[in-house]
Amino acid sequence: MNSHVKIPQGTSADLSRRSFLVGTAATGLVLGYAAVPGVDQALAAAPAHFEPTVWYAIAPDGLVTVTCGKADMGQHIASTMAQIVAEELGANWKDMRVQLASNDPKFNDPVLGAQITGGSWSTMMNFDAMSRAGAAGRIALTEAAASAMGVPAGELVVRDSVISHPKSKKSMSFADVVKSGKATKTFTADDLKAIKLKSPEQYTMIGVSVPQIDIPYKTNGTAKYGIDVMLPGMVYGALVTPPVRYGATVKSVDDSAAKKVPGFIKVVTLDDKTGTTTGWVVAVAHTYANARKAAAALKIDYDGGPNAKLSSESLLTEAKRLQGLSDSGQFFVKDGDPDSVFGSAAKVMEAEYTTNINIHCPMEPMNATAEFKGDILHIYSGNQFATRSGAIAAGAAGIDPKYVVMHQMWLGGGFGRRLDADMMVPAVQAAKAVGKPVKVIYSRENDMTMDFSRPLTYQKIKAGMDGDGKIVALSHDVVSAWPTARWGIPDFLTPSVDKKGPLDSFTVNGADFFYTVPNHYVRAIKNEMAHNATPSGQLRSVAPGWTFWAVESMIDEIAHATGKDPALFRVELLDGKGKNDGGAQRLRNTLLAAMGLAGYGTKKLPKGEGMGVACVSSQERATASWTACVAHVAVAPSGEVTVKKLTVATDVGTQVNPDGIRAQVEGAALWGMSLALFEKATLKDGGIEQTNFDSYTPLRMSQLPEVAVNVIANGEKATGVGEPAVTVVAPAIGNAVFNAVGARVRGLPISAEAVKAAMKA
Amino acid sequence: MPNLNINGRNMSVEAANDTPLLWVIREQLQMTGTKFGCGAGLCGACTVHLNGEAVRSCQTSVADAVGKKIVTIEGLSAKGDHPLQKAWIAEQVPQCGYCQSGQIMQAAALLSKNSNPTKDEVVAHMDGNLCRCMTYSRIQKAILRAASEMRTASATGSERRPT
């Protein structure tokens, strides 16, 4: 997150323009923020419209339904929101229910002012607002119960959805109070701010591994994802995407063979003024199977456009050329003057690190269903960025965004892929063309070749050490496509330190590490060629997934070159001086915890085995979860790497649901391993070469290592857990490989060939 | 019009013989618990049972399914209480959940033949089912938990029988 997006700093989110309403009726007690349209003009795409919306409602039967404004893609964030509300409300967990919000701005994130789910931000940015919402409900219910019972409110106790008066042994359930219609208290923003929340030692729900509310529905086939939406009269669209990732145009479409497919309706060539897609065609039919048959029968002639000859090699060559120019890019960090120090340094080292293109490929292929109903365009889809995606849908339809209603569904995996809105365009334009609701489902081949991928990255680090091996200067260049710049939302970009215009901090986050290095430059360089040819997106953990690959490998290289233990070298660098005070100490402690848990340095390992460490402040300096990993690997003479164990420690401040956190951290660590060893996409002739799970190969069960997750909850504010552990694993594995067989690999994914070649070198 | 026996009911469907069973189940029969993942038999999200065998419904034509007993996640148990489904909840397995119908159906086919699988047997049987959230270790634990519960239930059941 950049400095323009507000971060909660120990106080509540800005509620000054919001008034908290507690309405009442026999139909249910309703709690919510009044809508504030235009919180941010750049994001004010979504309408201020009709739906009566709420954070939660209590029905006369006592069930509490929390409306979650965040996309739930498996992190169980809806359940987490319910858990935070339930803590202060005093509700019984079995009474809690969840539902997913529409794109009504009143559901906007209280800190971000938009509906966007990413950055491992959700818990940290909603904790205070949900706590206060829960507390306000408890106060309203308690005062109503006091009046009904004729006792002082201060003598009442709220527990498990029951309000009781110990002295008189009277009690009322939440259901009783709601049915009485007596809860009428209204809260202003100031009232809300004034509410005294529980202190952590009073928690009875937060810190407890209550069962996630969504899980039962995901074991019996009843959870509804975007792909499961069924509307009356709905027909299906199958995509044909061009051989070039971006920039192709359709010259002609011959649908004569497609017309013979039973149930065929129409071919729609997209006219995408939002620029999200190029050269896409949709075949519409009464069933999806026939839509696919019709799509396969189309003969399409393309102009491949300006990127049709580009390959991964061309993008890398261009990245190196840009890095070599002294005036490239903008500065993200500019401390001291490394260039003037290198000349006098006792030792100077340089290294280049690369990562290949990576594909999100969540298990649910991209899809969206569009229906025009009167003036309103209804979109049904699981999406991480309703605020922007609604605007893209409107752009595809040629209507005002205020007429778009986004119906949120469970996400069959997100990982950042569903921040993008490309799926809206074919659904909307097909629905418009055929005059019926249309569900467009990508084939896996469409999904992989048209991914808004993690970009190919090239980084160069130069470090200077003094006579004691202490790092006195470090300069770090990061060259990549700029995923966030594509959004066209200025608030998500960051001003450069050298005042050369905004930069995409989501390409360099992490490079602003917590090690004390007096002279430190980080330069963000946009690879325009890659940006155009491979429109990139946010892939789980985003920049720290590559910046820490470079930084944590380089730190290891420096330690070895100066004869120091790599883990203890890090501990020395994390001295907490100056701007690093606080964070550095927490990261140091986490690293020491991981070392202790893994038995680092305590035992002699067999030949060909090694342990490597890494530690990270992902996702961003202001929102870090302090995370460290010790990877234990075995390397075969062929260079093949087997991960025996990953030991991960992470300091998350406060844990809402410990079991949920362990699930997220384990999944994230395995993502890190999968990206480190198994996942590689390549560009050739302007197109992504990998089309399905035979050629793009995420980790399977047989490749599962032992994973030990250790969560440190020290009472600091809650931080995010979905992403940080992704970023720490690749460097830990790379460093372990070096310790095992002396092979230093600087490109991801780490291949057996590269390890073997480095062993010989 | 092909006739299908699905979850114990006979249903006639309107589909060409070469239509993948997956789309007939999802669209015509509106049982959406069976998921589309890759269309190529590479991920296992669409796994159903055909005469008790786990098959990929995206690679099974309607014609191949005629005359056989098809079971989907909706028909695995009456109340979502198959030992595997209970174990999936006990171990809190699903994250996004999208692959889990297929995982459960794949695992059910194993346990119906082998009530005491080793961890290696579980891995060999489950390796074709991808989970992008990487919930693999919990899937393993849930399968072993369900197997143990099924053995206990069957042992208890046999004790009750008169000898």
Question: Features of this protein?
Answer:
heterodimer, A: alpha+beta, Aldehyde Oxidoreductase, domain 4, 7-stranded mixed sheet, 6-stranded mixed sheet, B: 163 residues, alpha+beta, Ubiquitin-like (UB roll), DNA polymerase, domain 1, 6 helices, 41% helix
The gist of it:
The complex is a heterodimer of chains A (761) and B (163). Chain A is built from 17 helices and 31 strands.
Itemize the secondary structure elements and their pairings.
The complex is a heterodimer of chains A (761) and B (163).
Chain A: E1 20-23, E2 29-33, E3 56-58, E4 64-68, H1 77-89, E5 96-100, H2 122-149, E6 157-159, E7 162-165, E8 170-173, H3 174-180, H4 189-194, E9 235-240, E10 249-254, E11 264-269, E12 281-285, H5 288-297, E13 299-303, H6 312-324, E14 330-335, H7 338-342, E15 347-355, E16 367-373, E17 376-381, H8 386-397, E18 404-408, H9 424-434, E19 438-441, H10 444-449, E20 457-465, E21 471-480, E22 494-495, E23 502-503, E24 519-526, H11 528-533, H12 544-561, H13 566-573, H14 583-598, E25 609-616, E26 626-635, E27 641-651, H15 658-677, E28 683-684, E29 687-688, E30 706-712, H16 724-741, E31 747-748, H17 752-760
Parallel strand pairs in A: 4-5, 9-19, 15-31, 17-18, 21-24, 27-30
Antiparallel strand pairs in A: 1-2, 2-3, 3-4, 6-7, 7-8, 9-12, 10-13, 11-12, 14-24, 15-20, 16-17, 16-19, 20-21, 22-23, 25-26, 26-27, 28-29
Helix pairs in contact in A: 1-2, 2-3, 8-9, 12-13, 12-16, 15-16
Chain B: E1 3-6, E2 9-12, H1 21-28, E3 47-50, E4 53-56, H2 62-65, E5 69-71, H3 83-90, H4 100-113, H5 119-126, H6 136-160
Parallel strand pairs in B: 1-5
Antiparallel strand pairs in B: 1-2, 3-4, 3-5
Helix pairs in contact in B: 3-6
